[in-house]
């Protein structure tokens, strides 16, 4: 038995690749840098510079470049760098330390988290757990918003490290990485550390805290402190907004899916060209052969399954996971390899990276993503069975919740569609960010599985107002957003015989 797949209804028309695509990000980053220079020089009144990016656009690289640019300005003597979580700031601090020197970069971390700092980061930075421990040689201080925004921290910074070049505040610029994951109430605790804030991030990711149905701030239906903080400032005359128009992560064939999420971008291109990423599959037959051949083509692939027993809940679905296990089994039993063309900093091809599942290196090869913790527990059981069955090395197969996998990258994503088995759209299963994160982690292949009936659900579910990015503003129908995204998938259907 095989499955026939139908090619996506949309393609990546007028797409730029390689250096032509990367050049757009270089130009945009330069525009943001010029705005920052103008603000530091006092010739522009910007107090917010927002660099908006799609997933996999190389945004952290742009942030590090702007940090170096700020420090080179005569009116900037010290900068702060923050984000919501330690897992975000640890690698960022390490990268800055390797570029600038450990004596210039301080990782400001809570005492009980200091032991969690990876060895390569520890070797690249100065580490302080109290304000008084920050070395006077450090002109970059990196810490979470909880650490830098702790009660009384502004006063302690002024007393221990003194004001920066502006003469009043401890930093001349505050850089916020993964800015669209930092909610407004957390940004409020660090905003006053510098006269200029630079936010860099992916506008499609989930915020770190999920708001409830009711706005906790009474009397203002348009304000929610759990919103990503940059959404409050684009209309201000003192804010400069720049979009990065290229993504480095996906295959060329995945670009229509990226464009389906970021519809308000004037342009979006892909550094990887056709054929730059490939999967070398073992000999496979039947349904598994059909499915993995479709995934290996590079386009996002959706397999809808019918005939299954009822699930425990729409998003806790052991029968559907059983189908996934049958698909993964022959692939992992026989092994596979990934191929990727490498590029220089300007997007020009310069080599090839080959990773064998027998000896994985770098990002995980296959990640199973689900929405609920219980569903991931079931997926972890699957991972443990297959890992033990074939003695898989670390890094071949793991499982995670979508929320926990934000900011991570892997070769192949296998995910259960959030709407699989649903009877209606709700706040959780139709969240734009959750689906966006699910679909934008993979560098080589994306396989989405779902119970049969997604089209019927979206055709018949009551119209439900909402916004694509979960923010106040012009309203659109979530079901239309879902339909647009599904149109970017190569699709196949499988009916399982009743037992």
How would you concisely characterize the structure shown here?
By secondary structure, this protein is of the alpha/beta class.
Write structural notes for this entry:
Helix 7 links the parallel strand 7 and strand 8. The chain folds into two domains: 231 residues, Rossmann fold (3-Layer(aba) Sandwich), CATH 3.40.50; 228 residues, Rossmann fold, CATH 3.40.50. Helix 10 packs parallel to helix 11. About 3% of the residues have low confidence. By secondary structure, the chain is of the alpha/beta class.
Which short descriptors sum up this protein?
Rossmann fold; 499 residues; P-loop_NTPase; 31% helix; alpha/beta
Please state the overall shape, judged from the principal axes of the Cα atoms: globular
The neighbouring-strand order within the major sheet is: 5-4-6-3-7-8-2-9
Our estimate of the beta-strand percent is 15-25%
Oligomer: single chain
Range of helix content: 25-40%
Radius of gyration: 23 Å
Unreliable segments of 5+ consecutive residues: 210-220, 471-475
Average pLDDT, all residues = 90
CATH topology description of the largest domain: Rossmann fold
């Amino acid at each position: 038995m095989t499955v026939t797949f139908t090619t996506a209804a949309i393609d990546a028309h007028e797409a730029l690749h390689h250096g032509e695509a990367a050049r757009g990000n270089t130009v945009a980053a330069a525009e943001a840098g010029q705005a920052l220079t103008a603000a530091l020089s006092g010739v522009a009144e910007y107090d917010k510079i927002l660099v908006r990016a799609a997933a996999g656009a190389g945004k952290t690289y742009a942030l590090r470049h702007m940090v170096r640019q700020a420090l080179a300005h005569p009116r900037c003597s010290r900068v702060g760098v923050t984000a919501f979580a330690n897992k975000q700031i640890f690698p960022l601090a390490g990268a800055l330390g390797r570029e600038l020197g450990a004596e210039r970069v301080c990782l400001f971390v809570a005492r009980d988290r200091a032991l969690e700092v990876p060895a390569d980061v520890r070797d690249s930075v100065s580490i302080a757990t109290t304000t008084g421990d920050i070395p006077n040689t450090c002109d970059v201080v990196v810490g979470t918003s909880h650490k830098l925004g702790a009660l009384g921290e502004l006063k302690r910074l002024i007393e221990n490290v003194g004001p920066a070049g502006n003469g009043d505040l401890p930093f001349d610029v505050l850089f916020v990485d993964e800015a669209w994951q930092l909610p407004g109430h957390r940004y409020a605790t660090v905003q006053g550390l510098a006269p200029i804030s630079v936010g860099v991030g992916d506008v499609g990711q989930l915020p770190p805290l999920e708001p409830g149905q009711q706005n906790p701030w009474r009397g203002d239906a348009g304000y929610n402190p759990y919103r990503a903080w940059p959404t409050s400032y684009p209309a201000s005359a003192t804010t400069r907004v720049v979009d990065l128009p290229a993504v480095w992560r996906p295959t060329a064939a995945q670009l229509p899916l990226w464009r389906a999420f970021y519809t308000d971008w004037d342009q979006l291109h892909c550094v990887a060209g056709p054929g730059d990423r490939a999967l070398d599959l073992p000999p496979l037959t039947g349904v598994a052969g059909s499915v993995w051949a479709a995934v290996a083509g590079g386009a996002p692939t959706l397999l809808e399954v019918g005939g299954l027993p009822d699930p425990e809940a729409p998003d806790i679905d052991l029968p559907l996971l059983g189908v996934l296990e049958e698909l993964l089994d022959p692939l992992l039993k026989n092994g596979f390899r990934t191929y990727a063309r490498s590029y220089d900093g300007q997007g020009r091809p310069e080599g090839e990276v080959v990773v064998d599942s027998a000896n994985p290196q770098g990002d995980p090869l296959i990640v199973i993503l689900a929405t609920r913790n219980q569903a991931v527990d079931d997926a972890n059981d699957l991972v443990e069975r297959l890992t033990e069955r074939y003695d898989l090395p670390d890094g071949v197969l793991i499982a995670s919740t979508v929320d926990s996998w934000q900011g991570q990258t892997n070769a192949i994503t296998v995910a259960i569609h959030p709407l699989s088995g649903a009877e209606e759209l709700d706040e959780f299963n139709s969240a734009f960010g959750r689906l966006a994160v699910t679909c934008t982690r993979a560098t080589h292949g994306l396989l989405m599985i779902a119970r049969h009936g997604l089209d019927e659900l979206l055709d018949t579910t009551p119209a439900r107002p909402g916004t694509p990015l979960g923010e106040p503003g012009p309203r659109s129908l979530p079901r239309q957003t879902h339909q647009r995204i599904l149109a970017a998938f190569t699709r196949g259907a499988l009916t399982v015989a009743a037992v």
